[in-house]
Write a structure and sequence with these properties.
The longest helix is centred in the C-terminal third of the chain and has 21 residues. This protein has three helices and ten strands, in the order βαββββββββααβ. It is mostly beta strands.
Amino acid sequence: PNEITRLHDTEGAVRQKNVTIDYDLLFGGELQSESGDEILINLFDDVALIGTKTSTELVYANGRIVNYAIGDNGWDYAQFSVVGKAVTGVIQVGHSLYTVRNVGSGELTVSEVDSSLLPQCGVDDRMNDCHSVKEKPGSGERGHNAHVSHIMLVYTDDVTAAEGGEDGALSVMNAQVATMNRALANGDSEFRVNLVHAYEQVYTEFGRA
């Protein structure tokens, strides 16, 4: 972009830059384009990846989740959550983690994230690798959708501001639900979650959730 609105305040980011996205290229020209379509994912000057589309899913707020496999090892992937012109993305390649977040005005921030700088998850050092969820080889081949919980998420105006607007906030929520379902699939769980409603609540945030 000629003018950078701001960089997204991405926790654990070690380098960042603002970009715009070719939406037609991201979707392969059509929303329901065939799996197998390839795109070049340019993250930084020294990081360019080939993604092969594996699925496109319609989600809440007329959003869509677009999934790409990176390479053929069954683990590395790119996932993009799109609502309007807002995009939330995560790209996992080996031990390298990259994110894409909306900052408004058609701009997105790409970040390289150092997972060791993120808060630990779980109760001890054995359970802290949960900031990205890799896809277990073969996990997508099983139709485990027998048990679905429909959920509602509430967010504050701080989230809306941080994510560059309402579409940005909604794209983050859809992405989080998709990541949760990916983790459940990896664990061979038949349980899934489905976001059916979200709304902004006036609330003064404090502390850390």
